[in-house]
# Entry
Amino acid sequence: MKQIRLMLLIILVPAFGFCQNCKYEVNEVDKFTGKVTKITKPKKVIATFFTAGSFSIKRTDSDYFFILNYGLSSYKRFDPYKINAGAQLILLLENGEKITLSTNDDIKGIKKTTIGIPPVYSCYLKNVSYPVTKKEIDILLKSKVMSIRFYRTESNGKEDYVDSVIKTNKQEVIQQLIMCLL
# Structure
């Protein structure tokens, strides 16, 4: 009997841990359509000296979206990047699978200059939305995201990409966000 209780405890404690940390930017029912919309608060998954990236997940009824916010800084002046419709976000999973998502958004980066010696030039890409299928959600629940690649466009029109390895302590964040919407 003690073994059964111990097994239940081992199984249920992580599940409750996921649910306890759920915070939402939006959690509402549309008064006209009756559709339920939930958007998790963004959680940082990428953090280096010159880059920062966070994800949130949106669910409207049975439709899911990854929302990427990304910032890039440099001591050299550069024009803001943009995301064009069709730009990809590729997630490399622990089990070796890849999930490729494409955005429908056209988003121009927001440029900011921080005065200092030397000045710091930054570009922020906010609320880039990538539709995700239920099948992809199920795959993501079974395997952690180890690395991401997202495509952007430079001011001269050249397509470029950014690869970011997800640190070990951040690899479960996407799974936790998904659990908040199930």
